[in-house]
Structure formats: C-alpha cells, structure tokens
Design goal:
Blueprint lengths: L2 H33 L4 H23 L8 H11 L1 H19 L4 H22 L7 E3 L6 H4 L7 H19 L2 E8 L4 E8 L2 E9 H14 L11 E9 L2 E12 L2 E8 L16 H12 L3 E7 L5 H11 L7 E5 L10 E4 L8 H8 L6 E4 L5 H12 L3 E7 L3 H10 L4 H7 E13 L5 E2 L4 H9 L8 E2 L11 E12 L2 H9 L3 H26 L5 H7 L2
Parallel strand pairs: 8-12, 8-13, 9-10, 9-11, 11-12
Antiparallel strand pairs: 1-5, 2-3, 2-7, 3-4, 5-6, 6-7, 13-16, 14-15
C-alpha cells in the first residue's frame, strides 16, 4: 500500500473520530441542560437585564429628560421597565421639540443618538490616553491631579481629567488659537476649536460630562467653580515634553449653562521678526523707519484675532534691547522677551494700564509697549509719553486706520495731542495660506478673467483649496499677515489738529480707502498663489 493511500485512510479515521466526539459532546450538553431546573440562556439573559437596568438608573439620574423632583420615581420605574421608560421619555421630548420648532420628530432623536455616540467615543479616547503626555498646571505650579486630591482620584474624576487633558492636547496638536466650550441645549455641549481663524467642532459631549470638564478647567485656572453666573477670568499652563503653552480662560453664564472661552497664547510670538511677517520691501522700510525713531507712537489696528500683538512683538525683536530700556504693559503677557521688563495687568490688585503707565515713566524707559488702549486715560498717557522722548508701541481694537483715529477722538483725546504724538498707523489682517500638499489650479469664470486682464492682474498662478489629510480637509495650513501702513505726515497732522470735518471725511472715505489698500495687498498674495480669492473675500470683503 502506498504512502498516499495510508495517509488518506488515517485522515478519514481521524475525521470519523472527531464527528463521534462532537455528537457525544452535544448529547452530553443536552443531558446537562435537561437535568438543570432552569435554562442557562435565560439565566444569562436575566443577569444582563439586571445589569442593564442598574446602568440605566444612573443614566436617568443624570438625564435632562427627567425633572429633578421625579428622579427617584423614574429610577424605581427604570428598575422594572429597563430601557422602555427612557425610550418613552425620549419620544415625548422629541414630540415636544418637534411641535415647537416644526422640524421632523426624528431630528431630536437623532441628536440624542449623536450625543450618546460622541460621549462614548470621548470616553474611549480618554481611556486610551496613553500617548498624551500633557500636564495642566495652575499659576502656582500645582498640577490638576494635585488640585483634585493628590493623585487619589475616583474613576469618574480620573476619566474627566484625562478628557480635559486630551482636549487641550488636541488644541495644541491642531494649532488652535481658541477653545470654546458652550451649551448646545439642555442636554449637550459643543467643544469647538478655532484653527487658522475658523471655528470647527471637535466634539459634542453630554451636559454632565461637559460641566465636569468646565469645572476642572476653572479649578486649574484658579477660578471659583461654585460661581456659574458672574463672568470670571483665569489662566493656566500646559506642559508637553519641552513645550510650555499658556492659556487665558474666560467664563460667562449663558442660556442652558456656562460658556468657557480659552485663548491659546502664541508660543512663537517671542521669536518672530518683521522679516517673518511676509511684508513687502516698502512696508518693511516704513515700519522699520518708525521704530528706529527715538520717539513717536506706532499704533497697530485691527479686529480681535488679527495678529496685532504678534506683529508688535516682531517690532520689539527688531529693537536693540541691550542699548535701549524696553518696558511692556500687557494683559496678559503672551511671550517672554529677553532683556525686557514685562508687567502684567491685574485689575483686582488695581494694576491697570493707566496706573502702570504712570509708574513706568519713572523707570527711565526708552521704549514703552502698551498691550491695548482701552480708555481715554491710557491713550493720553501713551501719547504724552511719545511726545517726551519715548517710542511707544500700542494696539487698539478697530477695523482700519481711519476708525482708529475716530476711536481715539471719540475717547476724548484732544486733536492737538493726537496729531503731535502719533507717527505711524498699521492696519492688519490675517489670511489663511493654501496647503502646499493639495492646492489646485483655480477655476475662474470668463468674466473674472476679463476683469483681471483689464486691471493687469496676473491670474495664471492663482490657486484654490482642495483638502487633504495634512490640512485636516480644510485646504489651508497656517496664516500670513497683510498690512496697510499709514504714515502720519505733516499734512495729516494739520488736518487732525485743525480740520473739524476730518471725522466725517474719515467715516466716508478713509475707511473705504483702507479696505481697498488691504484688498490690493491681499490680491498680490492671491496672484502669487499663496492664498485664494474666497479667503480674501472672507477676511477683507
């Protein structure tokens, strides 16, 4: 008999034995099940049902669907009915919202499902937080773990602290400038990140988890967690490896809960120079000439988030701080500068811009940096300092150079003081850069091409966003500044000091001219393929 035949016969015998063993095992299992007074499957189902009911009792106690005075009754009913009570409450709530809003009854149900899935996903992320090495510290250097009990944390507290650290880590990883945690409705909060000036939703969390996250951030920011209606301010620090980032926190009581706004202070502001700002040669020359002067005021103008402070730091980095005494007054200090005396505003301790500026003038300064001009007193002290042999760098929240002059006059600054102290106005905006990995050739309409030809604008190198993994699907990565510097000439000084009709002229023509200049600067960047037409329209109009 050949070897092949012997092997086949052996395999057949083994297969027959396995079949016989399987039949015996099934028969034995059947005899055991028949001998038991209950079904094992039913027992397992009963145990699972009990555990489900116990879990749903906790859900009911935290659910906004149940009134506070009915929590105990609802918990008892849940022990008997299981998920059917929650389903009934959800349908009733959806019907109420549908009758008020006029939307489909399935929309609220879908929103509840999305919140639940998001909560489970966030909890899973928090549990898997093995590679997130972020430490949150308060102003005194205590970690968030020490604040909540020196490391002896309950399981829920540990999960909340891990989730908080994960949110901060995501903000750092995605280059966010702001984190917003605000109530979406009674049952959910949204966590949004502002990346390159545009808000996007990071997570949706249920109200209970969100309130716990808000409290943990308020605690590490040295804020009162019991106060939910009165606005509060605070700050904290995050350490990740060799990187240290500072955060400024502001809370406010809003409908359906408490809103938290967290500003991520620019870590690179202290190392940038004017050459890094993307200025044209003419603009660089104008600004550099102004800061090389021994006196005068350089005023940065722009709305919130337009990069005014970063540009002001870049100006300070152009100054020889070894031979000139530089003092800054800021709220808050965004970056530490070498060879610079930096003072942080603290209204609770009566350290205001005006009070501090008076004291700064006694410190023999050569250059004074004012973080923001907010009132008449601060404006007058800064302008008088610029008249008495000091170079003053300052920012003001406004839309353009023209509106900066209007605002200072509206604050009550005398036209003569304004005309003699001011030397340069710089209006600024930030445009998102197109992602170099995915930008594509812009598809322009025939009418737009004809318009560019008439204005002699190069449209051959214009691009538009596409979106890829590198830019998180936005089509943009990073930002650049466009500026409109306005030198205060002798002619303009005379107009400010003497011409009473200047304000009305600035309101009508000046603001339009400033916007046109910014649009021209933006179009140059579009023609170079650095940004897109739609981004320029979004920022400048």
């Amino acid at each position: 008999m050949s070897k092949v035949v012997r092997v086949n016969r052996l395999a057949d015998l083994m297969w027959d034995d396995m079949q016989i063993a399987g039949i015996v095992a099934v028969a034995f299992a059947g005899q055991v099940a028949a001998a038991l007074p209950f079904s094992p499957v039913r027992l397992i189902g009963l145990v699972l049902w009990v555990y489900l009911c116990l879990y749903l009792v906790q859900v009911v106690r935290l659910s906004p669907l149940v009134p506070s005075n009915r929590k105990s009754i609802a918990a008892l009913a849940t022990l008997l009915t299981g998920p059917f009570l929650l389903l009934a409450l959800l349908i009733i709530d959806a019907a109420k919202k549908s009758s008020v809003s006029g939307d489909s009854v399935f929309k609220p149900i879908r929103e509840h499902a999305e919140i639940t899935l998001a909560e489970l996903r966030s909890a899973s992320l928090a549990r898997r937080r093995g590679d997130v090495n972020v430490k949150l510290l308060d102003s005194s250097g205590r970690s968030i773990d020490q604040i909540f009990g020196h490391g002896d944390k309950k399981q829920r507290e540990s999960r909340i602290l891990d989730l908080t650290a994960w949110l901060v880590d995501q903000a750092l990883e995605r280059r966010a400038s702001d984190i917003l945690i605000d109530p979406k409705d009674e049952s959910a909060y949204t966590v949004r990140l502002r990346v390159d000036g545009v808000l996007g939703t990071l997570r949706t969390l249920n109200a209970e988890t969100s309130r716990a996250v808000v409290n943990s951030i308020k605690a590490v920011s040295s804020m009162d967690i019991a106060e939910r209606r009165r606005p509060q301010d605070g700050s904290f620090i995050a350490q990740k490896g060799n990187i240290t980032a500072s955060f400024r926190v502001a809370s406010a009581g809003v409908v359906n809960g408490e809103k938290l706004s967290i500003r991520v202070l620019n870590r690179d502001a202290g190392i940038l120079t004017l050459a890094d700002m993307g200025l044209s040669k003419k603009q660089y020359s104008i600004i550099r000439s102004a800061i090389d002067e021994p006196s005068g005021m350089v005023l940065m103008c722009g709305p919130t988030g337009s990069g005014k402070t970063t540009t002001m730091y870049a100006m300070l980095n152009e100054i020889d701080r070894f031979t000139r005494n530089v003092i800054t007054v800021e709220d808050p200090i965004e970056a530490v500068l070498a060879q610079t005396s930096q003072i942080e505003i603290n209204p609770k301790a009566d350290i205001t811009f005006a009070n501090t500026l008076r004291n700064v003038l006694r410190q023999d300064p050569d250059v004074i940096c004012v973080g923001e001009i907010r009132d008449e007193e601060t404006a007058e002290i800064a302008l008088r300092a610029s008249q008495t042999g000091h170079l003053v760098l300052a920012t003001v929240h406004c839309d353009s150079n023209a509106t900066a002059l209007i605002r200072l006059l509206d604050l009550g600054v005398s036209p003569l003081l304004l005309s003699s102290g001011l030397s340069l106005l710089v209006s600024q905006r930030l445009l998102r850069r197109l992602c170099e990995h995915c930008k594509k050739k812009a598809e322009l309409s025939p009418g737009l091409i004809q318009e560019f030809k008439e204005k002699r604008i190069d449209y051959e190198h214009m691009f538009e966003p596409k979106g890829c993994k590198h830019c998180d699907g936005t089509g943009y990565y990073g930002r650049m500044a466009i500026c409109d510097p306005l030198v205060v000439t002798n002619e303009l000084r005379a107009d400010i000091a003497e011409n009473k009709a200047l304000v009305s002229e600035l309101r009508t023509q000046g603001e339009r001219k400033d916007r046109t200049n910014l649009r021209k600067e933006g179009l140059k960047r579009v023609a170079m393929g650095l940004t897109s037409l739609e981004e320029l329209k979004r920022v400048v109009g």
